[in-house]
Amino acid sequence: MTNPVPSRRPALLGRGSWSETLRIGAILRKETVGGALLLVGAVVALIWANSPWAGAYETLREIRFGPEALHLNLSLATWAADGLLAIFFFVAGLELKREFVAGDLRTVRRAAVPIAAALGGVIVPALLYLLLSGGVDGAARGWAIPTATDIAFALAVLAVIGRFLPTALRTFLLTLAVVDDLVAIVIIALFYTADLSPLPLLAALVPLAIFTVLVQRRVSSWWLLLPLAVATWTLVHASGVHATVAGVLLAFAVPVLRNERNGGPDTGPGLAEHFEHRFRPISAGVAVPVFAFFSAGVALGGLDGLTSALRDPIVLGVVAGLVVGKPLGIMAATWLMARFTHADLDEDLAWVDMLGLSMLAGIGFTVSLLIGELAFPGADDHVKVAVLTGSVTAALLAAVILRLRNRAYRRIHEIETADLDHDGVPDVYENERPEPAGG
After folding, report:
1. DSSP 312
2. Under 8 Å between Cβ of 19 and 98
3. Would the pTM of this model clear 0.70, i.e. be above it?
4. Which terminus of the chain faces fewer neighbouring Cβ atoms within 10 Å, N or C?
5. Is the pLDDT at 417 greater than 70, yes or no?
6. Which residues are CB-contacts of 71 (< 8 A; sequence separation ≥ 6)?
C-alpha cells in the first residue's frame, strides 16, 4: 500500500500570475523614476535651506495665490501638500481598488497577508513613538508620523541595490505601501481634522455623485470629469477635512472592469486602468517630487543643531518608529499569519528577505512629512529631521540586508524569466494552477 502524497501547505508570498507580474513591473518602473525625482527634489530643498540663500527658499514656499472666497488663497507649500498630493492619493486609491477587484489580491488568502502586515506596520510604530515621546507635552499628536511607507523612495533604493528582487516581494511591498497610504488617509481624516464644517462636506457629495454616475457609465471625457473632481476637492478642502481625502473618494468611484456586474464577454480593463496610465506619471514625476521639494527643506543648524534635534523625544520616537517599529510590526504580523494559517514562506524565500523588505517599509518620507505638518503646524522642523534621519537609516539597513541576498535573488529572477515559449509566458507561470477569483 502506497503512502498518500502529503498535501502541500499554502505558501506565503508565492509567485502570482504572469499578467499581474507584467503589470506590477510596469508600475514599479514608473515609480522608480518618480523615486529618483523625489530624491532630487528633497536633496535640492535640503541644500537650499542650509545655504546662504535659505531666506529665498522660505519666501518661495510662502508665496500665496488663489481665490480667497473659496478658502483657496494658499501658499505654494500648502498647494503642494493639499493639491498635488490629492493626485498621489487618487492614483494610490486606483491601485488599491485594482488589486482587490481584479489583481492577484482578489482572493482572501493572498490579500490577508499584506493587509495584516500593513496594520502591524502601523500599530507597532505608533505605540513605540508614544512610549518614547510620552513625557513631552503635546507630543502624542504626532503618533501617526512613523506609520506610512513611501513607495517611490523605497523603489528608488531598490533600483540601486535590488534589481533582481523577486516579483512576489516587489508585489508585497507595493501592496503594503498602498494599504499604508489608505490607512494614512483614514487617519488624516479622523484625527487631523481640526475644524469640521458639515455643509461643504455634504455639498461635496453632489459633484462626487455625478462623477460616480459618469464613470460608472464609462464616460472618460476630461472636460466633464475634471471640473467635477476639482469641485469635490474644493468642497472637501473647505470642510476642514484634508483635501487629499477627495483623491481617494474619487478613485474608489472609478470602475476597475468593463461590464463587471454580469461578467459577460465585454468584461475587461475599465476606466481605473485608463486613469492610472494617465495620472501615475503626473503623480510620480510631478506631484510627489514637488511636494518633497517644498517639504524637505529644513535648516539643520550645523552639527550642533542636528545633535540637539536628535535628543528631542519626538525625534527619537519618529526615528525608532520607522527604523524599529515598522519592521517589527510587519515581521510580527506576517509571522502570525503564517502560524495561524499553517502557511510556509515560499520555498524560494527566507525570513531574512522579509526582514530586508520590512526595513525598506521604514522609509516613510512623503506621507510622514505630510502628517508631521498636520500634527505640528509651524513647528515641524524637528519632525522633518526625524523623518529624514529615520528614512535614510531604514534605507541603508535594508540595502545591506537585501544586498547580501542579491545572489539568491538573481537565481530566482533567472527562473522566473527562463523558458519563454511561443506565447511569451515563462513555463514556471504556466505550470502553476491559477487561483480562483473568489475567496
Report:
1. S
2. no
3. yes
4. N
5. no
6. 237, 238
CA–CA gap between residue 386 and residue 313 (Å, rounded): 10
* Per-residue pLDDT at 78: 93
C-alpha 292/C-alpha 370 separation (Å) is: 10
Q: Pairing mode, if any, of strands 344-345 and 11-12?
A: parallel
Q: Burial level of 62, CB count in 10 A (0-12/13-18/19+)?
A: exposed
- Which cell is 100 given? 482587490
Q: Which amino acid is at 420?
A: L
Please classify residue 194 by burial: count the beta carbons closer than 10 Å to its beta carbon, then call 0-12 exposed, 13-18 middle and 19+ buried: exposed
Q: Which CA distances in Å does 182 have to 97, 157, 188, 349, 394?
A: 11, 23, 10, 28, 22
Percent of the chain with pLDDT over 70: 81
pLDDT digits (tens, 9 = 90+) for 208-260: 999 999 999 989 898 999 999 999 999 999 998 999 999 999 999 999 876 55
The 3-state DSSP class for residue 15 equals: coil
Q: What is the pLDDT of residue 259?
A: 58
User: Which among 275, 310, 244 is positioned nearest to 82, based on CA atoms?
Assistant: 244
361, 329 Cβ separation under 8 angstroms: no
Residue 338: pLDDT band with limits 50, 70, 90 = confident
353-388 pLDDT, tens digit each: 889 989 999 998 889 999 999 999 877 788 999 999
End-to-end Cα separation, the chain, in angstroms: 36
Cell of 433: 494552477
Q: What's the CA gap between 104 and 219, in Å, rounded?
A: 27
How remote is the C-alpha of 344 from its chain's centroid?
A: 26
Relative orientation angle of helices 365-375 and 381-404, to the nearest 10 degrees:
160
Q: Do 425 and 373 meet the contact criterion of CB atoms below 8 Å apart?
A: no
| pLDDT single digits (tens) 126-152 | 999 999 987 788 899 999 999 988 877
52 by Cβ neighbours in 10 Å (0-12 / 13-18 / 19+) ranks as: exposed
pLDDT confidence bin for 59, thresholds 50/70/90: very high
Is residue 161 a contact partner of residue 400, using CB atoms and an 8 Å limit?
Answer: no
User: E strands of 171-301, at which residues?
Assistant: 257-258, 268-269
What single letter denotes the amino acid at residue 239? Answer: S
Grid cell of 190 as nine digits:
479622523
Give dist(CA 76, CA 309) in Å, integer: 26
